[in-house]
Amino acid sequence: MDNNYNRRSFIKVTALSGGGMLLGFNWFVNRTQRQMNAAGTPADSDWTEFNGYISISSDNVIRIMAPNPEFGQNVKTSLPMIVAEELDADWGTVEVEQASFDTSLYVRQFAGGSQSVRTTWKPLRNAGASARYLLRQAAANAWNVPFEEVSTNSGKLIHEKSGKSASYGEFATAAASLTVPKDVPLKSPADFRIIRQSQKNVDGHKIVTGKPMFGMDYTEPGMLIAMIEHPPAFGLKLKSWDGSRARRMPGIKDVFTISLFPEGYERESFDTRTFNELVVVVGNTTWEVMNARKKLQVEWEPVKEKKETVNAFGNKREETIPAGLESSERHLEIMQEMAGKPARQLRKDGDPEKAFAEAARILERTYTAPFLAHNTMEPMNCFARVTDTEALFVAPLQAPEFAERSLSKRLGIPVDKIDIRMTRMGGGFGRRAYGHYLIEAALISQKIKSAVKLVYSREDDMTYGIYRPAYTATYRAALDANNNLTAFHVKGGGFPEHPVAANRFPAGAVDNYLAEGWEMPSNITIGAFRAPRSNFIACAEQSFLDELAELMGKDPIDLRLELLQRAKDRPIGTSNDYDADRYAGVLKLVREKSGWGNSTANGLHRGVAAYFCHNSYAAHVIDMRMRDGQPYVEQVFSAVDCGIVVNPDAASNMVEGAVVDGIGNALYGELRIRDGAPQQRNFNTYKMIRMHEVPKKVEAHFVRNDIDPTGLGEPPFPPVFGAVANALYKTTGKRFYKQPFSAGFETEQGGK
Amino acid sequence: MAKFNLKVNGESRQVDVDPSTPVLWVLREHLNLTGTKYGCGVASCGACTIHLEGMPVRSCQLPVSTVKQQEITTIEGLSASGDHPVQEAWIEHDVAQCGYCQAGQIMSAAALLKNNPNPSEEDIEAFMTGNICRCGTYLRIKQAIVAASQK
Ligand code: FES
Ligand code: FES
User: Do B105 and B45 sit in the same domain of this protein?
Assistant: First the structure.
């Protein structure tokens, strides 16, 4: 068997045992070592590992492995499309496999930060192009014609002069014995036939027929079910417990406690520990375990202040976790106090103090937003079968490589004895990057010496923490006597992190600029939530710019465009992190598509917002209307620049979803804390957006360019909040500063 | 524990469970029909929607002891091969993102169209309001229902 390996392109071709070729490749080949470490991915091992493949059997079955965890962003379709494009395959006949359950080609991949398409774009194209090259070469050899004369068309090899043609399968075995080329030319975007064409979700049929695909659906004979009782409030821990009544309930195997991490454990970034000591009930079925939990007798006591070491990808820091039962109301008071105090300087240009002192007019506004629960539709869960020497996990998770490292450390089992199989995820939104539920499942399995599935109830899931932080930001702008914007000041804070991205727009567009941040420790745990930090700060900033435009007597789009032009022509500072042209591009596109400036239909009121994050640009115009005394979003025009759009219809679906998610969270999203306890525990108290509250129409438009794809899962989300706030102002005549905005509808307290 | 004879997707099945067990868990853990999903357990999300004698019900709130001889239909039994007009419309409109809520959405939609073959937009909104989609695919759900109603 030949085994040709091109170290430089990280591609290996092997003959399939039954005939055909297997081309292995590495998804990470275009990342630099530094980038990978910054992303927290262990670098070295990946460079020699093949974790993707194309297989072409001699009877012409073409399979492409989709390695990414799928949580709805449709990468299981779009990543193979990229491979198929360069392979010049017939998309209709390509089979896509998920890398889990039945393959030893375990894939290290992270679904988060809108990275999937962006980081795999080059290696995927290269792999497809290399396979095509080898097939053409094999055909050229067999037909005895020059390589250049062999072309391909939708899965066929063709020699026009002689009229010869063959399927890929016919030459797959021969191709496997050839040497992998060093540099294969890639297609010009103008020649794309599969990319930029809408292709349906490859799992569509399985989803509509209810096939088992999710972690929750996984089962094995003899598997037990476990559930966890965690403290009812942040700031409490286990004091004493008695499981004897619960243990006597039907179907119950055992009741015991586990400790997530031992004292002094050095946590890594995603090792978030909300509650350390947990009471576990294990039984035969979920219903029996749920019932037995009601018989648990548990006492809780207040925690003491704690110091912990966190090792964030090599950067160690001390973290203080305070004692006490916190409340959202108190958080808001602290935010108000902090708004008047100086905070840590993040960036300063010019002399903002002087400019504010000399200003003719100053606009100052403060914005707040509460904790949000991710509320993935599928609650956390994990199957585990763990012995002293090896461990198997089947779970929906976003960051297997982080989980694997933590599990190895916690269980004392080497990484190569840990097998993590990823299922489809019933939503992620950042929540499933935190692998505590794998560790919990592992400890339970070890203790009861059995395969077990840990299941969170909705209440467990919603009250466990790892929330979007509670944030605030105060904005100030100085205008001189000639109505020029002379200074801009943002100060953001939060529990326990601040939301400010100091180098984002309008940094770079204003001579005198100050960005500050403050952070307040909290025992309420937080985590990445779809477009972390941006999901709040975009709302505050874009609401503020809207009010500023009004004060200056300018159209809100015009004001942004003027500032962007300024940032382009005479940028202040060198570390501005946005491209002013692409930013302006989405604003212009949304202006055109929405007919901005023309009068809207009767009773419609519009707001606009734009934002840049996660390498892509997005702008929305939202049209709102009062119906039965309540404001409703009627229609939305969206413009997005995420480079080349691989799968347009799926991309539109993502934008529609982000718009709906943004409207829902802006208007209703809130996880309130009182005396340390989450006040929302299930969907009967946590208000989720529902069908009648959703706009009738969302039009997603994409800037057409040939820039490599830059990600789509997160960027359209943050500016929705701002567009909602600005449309609300036009609709109700009141400015809304405090999320969730719907609280202001009922009490008439929203505006100032 | 007690024995129950159930009619599920046209077959008779026997289970031996606590009478209070919701049909949701009977389906998922005793009959290995995992298409019906757990989302909230309190009738607030619709992920567990099944048909009981053709009517949509939240199976998380339906104790197995109350079912008796009533016919249960789950997503697995909605059609022989995934070709119910609603399922086809779902694929045609590429509705799903994560997909977790969709079995419940489809079961609700199929029940809606059975009783109201030509629903207005308001009818659809009112009927589907008990089904949450965290991914926000509501617009496509609505379009797919409209498309299925025209078949
Ligand atoms: S699980 Fe039954 S309605 Fe949510
Ligand atoms: S598709 Fe994810 S919850 Fe509906």
Answer: no
